[in-house]
Amino acid sequence: MKHCIEAQDRKQGAKAERLRNDLDMDRGFYRKADVPDHVHYITAFIVALIATVGIVGNALVIYAFFRNKKLRSPPNYFIVNLAVSDFLMVSTQSPMFFVSSLYKGWVFGKTGCEIYAFCSALFGITSMINLVAISIDRYIVITKPLQAIGWTSKCRTLISILIVWIYSLAWSSAPLLGWSSYVPEGFMTSCTWDYVTSTPANKSYTLMLCCLVFFVPLGIISYCYVFMFLAIRNTSRDVESLGSQMRNTTLVQQQSIKREWKLAKVAFVVIVVFVLSWSPYAFVTLIAWAGYSSILTPYSKAVPAIIAKASAIYNPFIYAIIHSKYRDTLAEQVPCLHFLNKRTRKQCVPGSNSGFLLRNSVLSMQSSGSKTTFHSVSSVFTGHTVCSGVMLDPLAQQAPLLRSSQSANQLMEKEQRHQLQLELNFKDYLSQEKPAISSQSLPGHSGNDLLEDTK
User: Fold this and answer.
1) Cβ(257)–Cβ(235) below 8 Å
2) What does each C-alpha distance from 379 to 355, 389, 390, 391, 429 come to in angstroms?
3) Which pLDDT value is given to residue 339?
4) With b meaning 16 or more CB within 10 Å and e meaning fewer, what string describes 175-188?
5) 417, HSE (Cβ side, Cα atoms, 13 Å)
6) Boundaries of each G-protein coupled receptors family 1 profile domain copy (predicted)?
7) Mean per-residue pLDDT for 298-325?
8) How confident is the model at residue 433 (pLDDT cuts 50, 70, 90)?
C-alpha cells in the first residue's frame, strides 16, 4: 500500500511539473516586446493592406487562369500553384498577425503559434521551390527542345508540383517533431522557428534550412537562367550565319524558342522580386546562427519578416504588366478592369534578329484555276518583332493539332517544305508579273506610301 501511495505521489508531482513548465512556456508566448504602441498599430495597418491586396490579387490570378483555356498549359500550372501558395500565405498569416498587433502581443498561445509558423514555413518554402521548378522547366524547354516534348506534359507537371509540396511539408514539419521549435519573433506578434536560441538543434535546423531552401535553390535558378540566355544568344548567331534560304527554315524553331524565353522572362522577374523580399530575412537568421543574436533588435527581426511575407502580393502586378494573355483575360472577365485591354493595338508575335522574309509588299495568295495570284499581303519583319495583319503561314493555324499527333521532326519537315514552296511560288510570281507591275502604278499609293503603311 505504501509503495502504491508513493507511486501516485510521484505521478502527481510529475504532472504538476509538466503543468508548471507549460504555464511558463505560455507566459513566454504572451510576453510583449519593448516597442511603442503606435508601432504595433502601424504594423497592423500594413498587415491589413498586405492581406487585402494579396487575397484579391492572387484570387484574380487563379480566376484568370481557370477562365481562359489558352492559359491552361502545363507551364502555367506552376504559376497557378505559386498563386495558390501566395493566397494561402496571406489568408492564414494576416488575420492572426493583425489581431496580435492590435493587442500588442501574441494572443493565440503555443498551439496558435505553431499553426501560424507551420503555415508560414509551408507556403513560403513552397513558393521558393516552385520557382526552382519553373526555372528547370524553362531550362529544359529552351536548351533541350527535343527532350522537352515528353517533359512538359500535364502529368509530369502535376507530379513536379506534388514533389514541391512534399519537400516543403517535410521542412515545415520538422520543428513540430523536435528539430528546433516554433516561437514568437520580432514584436512578439508573429511566430517562426527559433533561430535566436543557441542550441545544437536550432543551429543545425537554421543552417540546413537556409542552405537547402534558399541558397541552393537560388544557385539552381541562376544556373538555369545563365544557360537559357546562352542558348538564346547562340540560336540568334546561328540564324545570322545562315544563308537567306536556310534562315526561313530555321525561323520557326527560333520563334518558338523566343516565345518560351518570353515566358521565362516573366518567371525571372517573379524570382528576382521573391529573392529580394526574402534575402533580408535570411541574412538576419544567419546573423543569429553565427552567434550575434544579441545585436538583433525587435525591429531588425520584425521588419524583414514583414517584407518577406509581402512577397505574396507582388506577382499579380507582375503578371498584369508583363503577361499579355493574363491581362486580356482580366479585362474581358472583370468589368472594373477593362482598362487593361490593349486589343486595339496591332497584334505582334516574337520574331528573330534576321531581316529575312517579305518586306513592305502588297501581295497575297489566291488560287484561280492553275494560276496563282498574289495580292494584299502585309508583313513586316523587324529586328525584334513580326507585326502582321494577315496570317502569312496557314500551317501555323494547324500547328497545335499537328503537335499533338506528330513528332517534332515531322512537324519541322512539313513547315520547311511549306515555307520553301511559298518562296518558290513567290519567285515565280515575280518573274511573271514584274513587267505588269512596273508598267502601272497602284491607285492611291506610291512605293513610299506602301512602305509607310506597313511600318
Assistant:
1) yes
2) 12, 7, 8, 9, 17
3) 67
4) beeebbbbbbbbbb
5) 6
6) 57-319
7) 86
8) very low
Instruction: Say if residue 130 is exposed, middle or buried (CB neighbours under 10 Å; 0-12, 13-18, 19+).
Output: buried
Q: Which of 415, 425, 437 is nearest to 365 (CA)?
A: 425
Helix (H) or strand (E) holding 81: helix 74-103
Say if residue 404's pLDDT is above 90: no
User: How far apart are alpha carbons 320 and 330 in whole angstroms?
Assistant: 9
Residue 235 pLDDT exceeds 80: no
Handedness of CA 180, 186, 188, 192 (dihedral sign): negative
C-alpha cell at position 263: 515566358
| Of the candidates 263, 256, 306, the residue with the CA atom closest to the CA atom of residue 281 | 306
The three-point CA angle 283-286-289 to 5° equals 160
Residue 39 CA to chain centroid, in angstroms? 33
Give the angle 400-366-243 at the CA atoms, nearest 5°. Answer: 65
d(CA 389, CA 380): 10
Q: Which domains does the chain have, with CATH numbers?
A: 31-341 (1.20.1070.10)
The dihedral built from the CA positions of residue 94, 98, 104 and 105, taken in this order, carries a sign that is negative
Interstrand relation of 190-193 and 348-350 (parallel, antiparallel or unpaired): unpaired
Dihedral sign, Cα of residue 193, residue 196, residue 202, residue 206? positive
Query: Which residues, other chains included, contact 186 with Cβ-Cβ below 8 Å and sequence gap of 6+?
Result: 33, 298, 299, 301, 302, 303, 305
pLDDT digits (tens, 9 = 90+) for 130-152: 999 999 988 888 888 777 776 77
Strand pairing class (348-350; 385-388): antiparallel
